[in-house]
Each structure stands twice: as C-alpha cells, then as structure tokens.
Amino acid sequence: MVESRGADPSKVRGEADENAARERMRTLVADIRRYDELYHGAGAPEVSDSEYDDLVRELCDLEARFPQWVDRGSPTRRVGAPVHGGLAHLVPMLSLDSLTSNDEVRDFDERVRKGLDLPDGEIDYMLEPKYDGVSANLLYEGGRLVRGLTRGDGKTGEEITRNLLCVHGIQPELGGPGRLWPERIEVRGEVILSRSRFVELRAEREAADEVPFRNARNAVAGALKRNEPDGLEAFGMDFFFWGIGDLRGFESATTYGELCQWIADLGFTVSPQLTRARGGAAILDYHDDLERRRDELDYEMDGIVAKVDDLALQRRLGRTARAPRWACAHKFAPRRAWTKMLDITVGVGRTGALTPVAVLEPVELAGVTVQRATLHNFGWLEDRDVRVDDRVEIERAGDVIPEVVRVDVDARSAGSQPFQAPQACPRCGEPVHEEGAFLYCTNIDCEAQIRQRILHLGSRRALDIDRLGEKYVDQLLEAGLLKRVEDVFALPERREALLNLERWGEQSFNNLVAGIDRAKRPQLPRFLFALGIRHVGEQVSSDLADAFGSLDTLRAATLEQLLEVDGVGPKVAESVRDFFELPATAHFFEALDRAGVVVSALEKVEADDNAGGALPLAGRIFCFTGGLETLTRDQARERVEALGAATASGMSRRVTDVVAGTGAGAKLEKAAKLGLRVITEEELTQLIEAGGKAGGDAE
Ligand code: IVH
Known about the structure:
The chain is α+β, with helices and mostly antiparallel strands. It has 24 helices and 22 strands. The structure holds 2-(butylsulfanyl)adenosine. Residues 94-96, 128, 130-131, 135, 151, 190, 242-243, 305, 324, 327, 329 line the site of 2-(butylsulfanyl)adenosine (IVH).
C-alpha cells in the first residue's frame, strides 16, 4: 500500500560515475535537511537516529570523494540553526566529528598521529563527558561578562546574556586568586539541566498544563530564550566548561589540562570526570567505563569527547570547515529495553499527518517509565510489520518519547494479524490521502488538526504564547472560544467569557493577553514557522525569509521563484504554494490584519548588527552563483562576512551584490531580471583586498 521511502546507501557505492554521485548527494542533502526540520519540531520524525546517522555518514563520504559537488548549504557544514539579527562569535564555534564505532576511534587516533608525523607515537588525550545540553559562549572583557551568546550557526549566535546570568556557574565577573584576568576571553561550555531537576520541572509543568518538554536539552533551550528571565535561577540550570574561543592577554597554558585548571580557578565548573590518558585505546576504555556508569551521574551525556591535550599540537592539526581535527566525540549506544506493545493508536498532526503511536506495557528506561513510543508513519509500520501484542525493543535517545526499533517475531502468537492502516481520519471521519509513507487527513476543518495548529502556533519555537498548552486549548475549543487558529488573536476581546471558565482569573487572562500582544509583532522566519505549513520547519522558514524578505513577496512568489531558493525542492515549493492558495489561508490573514498582527519584514539587520555599522560592507548582501577559481565559495563568503556583509543563498531584491563565477546559470538570469548589480570574481577579489573599500556603493 504505502511505498517505502528513504535512502539506499548502495546506490553509488563503488561507483565512479560522477553524475550518479552528484544526484545522490543532492537527494541526501534534501532528505537530511527535511529530517532535521522534522527533528526540530516540524512534525513526526521519519527515520530512526541510526538511519539518520547513516545518511549523514554517506553524505560525508561522498563529499570527501567529490568535493566539487559539495552543496554550500550541506547539512554536514552547518553547525546549528541559523540566527537572525545575531551577534558574531569572535572565533567560530565548531562542531565535533561524531564517531560510533571503536574502529572509527582507532582511525581518528591514527589520523592524529599521522597528521603530527608521529605514526608510531602515543598521543596524550584529555577525556571528558559529552554533555547533552545547549552550548553557550561567554565573552569576558577586563574580567566582566560583556555578553553571552547561543551557538547559533557557529558564526553568529543569539544574545541571551541576562538568561545566562541565571545559570548556576556563570558569574558576572571572573573570580580567581589575585584576580589576574585576561584582557578578553570567550569561555564556552554546555548549559544543562540535571536529570533530577528535569523530572521535577516536568511534573510541575504537567500540573500547570504547559506544553511538555521533549527532553532536558529542549527545556534548557526554551529557558535560555525566555523573553523575561526574572526568576529563572529557580529553573536550576548548570554550566560546564568545555573550551575557549578568543583569548587575549594571558596565554600561559600549554595544555588543555592546564587550561581547565586555570578556568576552574576563574570560578567555572570543569567536569569532575575530566581525565588525561595516553593513546587511542585509552579513549575506548574511558568511553566504556563512562557508558557503564552513565546512570550514576545526574546529568545526561550522549558520549565522551577526546581532545589532544597539547595546545601546540592542536594548532598544528587545525580544523575542517565544521570541526577541529584534534578532537572527536565517541557516542554512547542509545538506551534500549524490551516490552509488550498493547495497542496502536493513531494521532492527527497539525499538517493532517496521521501518526501511529505504540501503547506499551510500562517499562523503566534510564529512570523514566515509558508507556508510549513512536512508530513514525504507516510506511515505516508496514515495512517492519509491527503488530499489536508483539514483544518490541524500544530505544530512548535522550528524548522523553522513545521509538520502537525491533520486533521479536519468534515470540509472536499464531493468530497475530498485521495492523490495518486507517482508511478514514480517526477524528473527523473524512477519507485519508496517501503521500509516500504518510497518510494525511485532508480536511482543513478537522478539529484535531486545528487543535494541533493552535498548539504549534503558541509553542515556544513559534510565537511563544503562554497559556496555550494542551489543557487550556482543549478547554477553549470545548467552550467554543477557539474554532479556528486565527481565533487566538481575538481572545483578548473575550475577557468576560474567559473569566467565566474554570481556572481562569484576572492574572491568567492578563498573562494571555500580554503573550498575544507580543506575538502580534513576529519576525518573518518565526512567523512562517508558526504557520505550520507542511514540510516547512525552522530551516526552510529561515531560507524563505532570507530569499523573499517579506510576507507579501513570499505570498506572491510563483512555484518557479520558490524553486530557486537553495534547499527548496518541488515538495516544499508545492506545499508553500498550496498553502498560500487555500481560501482558508486568505481568511486567516484577513483575521490577522484585523487583529493588528504585523509581521516584520527581514531587514538587512544581520549585516548591520554584526558590524555595528562600522565595517565597510555592512548593509550589503552578497549572493554567489557559478564556480569560483581563486577561492572556494566558503572562503569568499567568510571574507565578505568578515567585512560586515551578509550572504544570501537565494536571489532576491534584497541582494545588493551578485558574484557571477564560471557557468553561472538560472540565478544569474534572475539577477539580471531583478536589475541587480553583478560583479566578477576578479572584482570581488579586488574588493576584498581593498578591505571592502573599493567597488563603489551598491545602494
Ligand atoms: S568541544 C572545538 N567538549 O557538542 C571544540 N563539546 O558536537 C568543540 N559538547 O558544540 C566542542 N560536551 O555544544 C566539546 N565536552 C565537550 C562537550 C561538547 C558537549 C557539545 C558542544 C559542541 C557540540 C559538538
């Protein structure tokens, strides 16, 4: 019935055909990006973590073999989520190569030794846990915290200084004996929530009917982005040091171990599990030991990190575009347990996707009682033939909701029958539509979809409106105060009706109104994400905002224009077009206009903010098309960004400078149509060499 989708890693294995590789790389980039979107909250995950890791690995291999076809926006190069209006890290925040097998660790050690011309030597490594939290970059100048940023896309992060000051272990001033401070230091580490504190907060949240946390990491991410950090200390977050960025005026440490000692003297928490060990085999021993003890420690780790101890050797090894060559993460195997699947229920998501969910005989997994697990989608369910009453193995990779990874077919009873996918929506009864591995309820008025869309609109990563958790939304739907998503914006006018409801008082009503007022001035990328368009998660929202700049321009975009945006394939483009063409969407926007919702167009703020207006290319936006000869696109991008410019992946009116390399095609035609200024690679090089001061003014 449903076709099985997903990747076939054997497609180009051993194949010298460049075209096939290029095609496969395109498919992998598109698939991985979509899975990233789903993972980050745009819907139900379609693949398991290990399938996802395999795809990333396959893409990395192909990129190493065919560097000429590497996509500039490849997920292997992207360190994190893009940030709008963010501030630049003084030194980029890198990612880590993530290894899962012992052989890969041995290869890493061999690469390090070869890279240092020590093929037979033994390297001293510092070993520490890989914390499963949210990274932060703290800039201290003259001993005072001047700003704290999220990691963002690795180059720029969001400014969250006030929130970070509520984290235990982050001080406004550096401590330390003799108060000998470096002139400037970027202290980096992970903000985490201990397991015990997470369990408490989750219970509190459940009692208050707020949207449940997916895991401790998400809880921390939400807390760090709170608009109002008052009282945030009580959340109970901790900061663990794992590295430094820029450092001026005090550079006496010669090893990572010494650096950690010094950082601890300045008042930060360094891992109590930090150990120095010699040789690649010691990395494996440390990994196995910590994995055995992982439940004894009160915080989540998803593996260990090994770092070459000697800082001079680190410098010699250098880095790739996304990760240092002197460090690696060795992941732990996910936690698993066997139990019985009592039933399969079907949920309806906000895009109408029907999702099968396993109801389990309760089982303990890493200190949490698990009663439900995701079965992804009906294609997945059919491929694996998971049946009611089966003995199943479940896996929890850090999230509260685990997934079913294996079935014990031998333990199946004789009368067992395959699960029948529904022909109709279990909530509204309308027929379902099949698309790839998914079944969809296509009834735009389906109450279950509306409920989910409202929950999504109010969720933290979307418009972040308090009091729009499940219990309250259900109550408001039942009372008829919410019938459609847009009714959210009319709630401030329903004061009397709301105050008549149970659990509503002046205070909670005022909080709701304040939340809705804030939500009436959304930034374009967040707003697009909040719309809950199928296949449009945070990344695509951000790309669309970048390319079109304003909601009106995006609404008027043709399918062809949508397809010109990097990372937008036919599926996404059609979904966006369909959404904007729906009569219900027109009503939605009319209602938002009436309520005074104003979506901020994406100004050229990123460039201006980053540069404080002082850099020569501040305010200019570069877009590259075609191949460059004297430098790679990444280098070109880095150079113009260092001079204060921003870069865009798609061609739009916002672009001020188009750099046309060899073989520039459709994008260049579009640039000509838009009347944009086009420069050659030579002109770009001159501009860079002149420190951004030559080349005229594009405005
Ligand atoms: S070192 C250049 N050490 O994992 C060094 N990172 O996958 C890069 N992380 O961005 C990071 N624990 O957010 C390092 N002990 C640890 C870590 C750690 C957690 C996170 C960090 C980093 C990500 C890389």
